[in-house]
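Quick start: what a row looks like.
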Amino acid sequence: MNDKKIFWGIIGCGDVTEQKSGPAFNKIKDSKLLAVMRRNADKAADYAHRHQVEFWYSDADSLLSNPLVNAIYIATPPSSHLEYAIRALKLGKAVYVEIPVTINAREATLLGKAVHQYNGKLVVAHYRRKLPMFLKIKKMIDEGVIGTIRIVTLRLWQNRTHTLTTKEEVGWRTNAEISGGGYFLDLSPHQLDLMLYFFGPPLSYSGFSQIQVSNQQVADQTTGTILFDNKILFNGSWCFNVAKQDEIDCCEIIGDSGSLRFSIFGNKLIIKNENGEQEFSFTHPENIEYPMIRSAVNYFLDSESNPSSIEEAIILMKIIDNFAKVI
């Protein structure tokens, strides 16, 4: 885009924007948070006051109509991502959209078509790609530190009372019409996108979900496999009804001369190879989405390539749709 500075508007200035993303917009060169929107006018006004934001609105149309805003951050629940993103693209505004990018692959495909139709710029918030720990893992894989990759295993098991979100946000995450599904739809994009980032597009994939606890409205267990190039096999398991003592968040990448073990939602990396075992600890940014937002700003200003494209997100959502099928 021709603009020399990115002036942001947030649609959905809820809890996710308080620390993870919102403050980052004003910490980046040539970037400023100018407007916020939330359906609750009092909460929108409060957010604007606390974060020194000039404009606040209680409806998206008013924010989108602000001619000073040239980029939109969509941080609403997934069911409204497609609508808001297309409206922003039609107006010639760049878009940064939270994950999952849409509620399913069909909507993601429609969004991809809109990006091309309006010659727009859109970045998907797969921000873990830009965190130091995952950049280190990518570098180790590419440099063959653990040899040729043979198999990847991932387990995310949680107790039903466990959540990685605030109480205010829990309800919509288990409402399939709003979120697309349960916690698998909410959490797996972080994990599966990293697999695509590490290993490239899949050759094939297959999986399924089931509702083990009968009073649940969404699946609480999912399993899936992905075959990548070079015969790299991924096996994933998600379960949200285990005992608290059996909770686990672990990904292991096994090569023919060593292994990497880490938590997707943690900050420690353990490498084992012929040199023994080493543990690395990483400090995530204060505003964890800062590195990805910085890359998005650079992309919008034509100084960097797209760090996380809708085309990649479409592939991801096709995998998630496949795994999320309830049997």
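That is the whole record. Residues 164-169 have pLDDT under 50 and may be disordered. The longest helix spans residues 183-199.
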